[in-house]
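**User:** You know discrete backbone vocabularies at least as well as I do. Would you mind producing a protein record, from residues through to fold? Write it directly below this note and I will take it from there.

**Assistant:**
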Amino acid sequence: MKVVLCLAVLAVVCHQAVVADGQQGGQKVAEWSDKSVANAVGGAVSNDVPSRQERAAKENKKEKKEKKVRADNCKYSKGAWSECDPKTNMRTRTFTLKKGDVTNCEQTRVIEKKCKKGKSGCQYEKGTWSSCSTPQNQMSRTDRLKPGSDPSCEATRQVTRNCKNKQGKENKQKGNSSGRRNKQ
């Protein structure tokens, strides 16, 4: 590695000397030597010292192997998918351990998944947003259940969110605290 780096330094010094001399043929030799040294240095660096990406890829492979070993030891039986919950638009599935060490494997695992589109039972017509309340800095709206929706859904739902601070934005622009310059 030290030899390659010394060659790289030597080639740069030679290149500068030839360019200062002003010979056209020498420039071609100097350009060629710079490229070859760069290739040699690049090859030496990539072969001797693994890059950050290569190290990360190696670690990911190790983790996947470890997970696979753990997964191979734990075998689960799949339960049926639950009915779609109209309020959350989610369904669940339970996996029960059928083979494996109880100390290393979870006895049961539950996964959640969104229901397919169009199967959501609760569909609402969006209401209009209220004005911003001063103490809480929030606005709200009331949504009404659309006709033909699942009757088990709530007839109305209340949605609340934080207000955008327009006055604070104006102060920032006047004070120019955002770091931007004013166009003139």
About this structure: The radius of gyration is 33 Å.
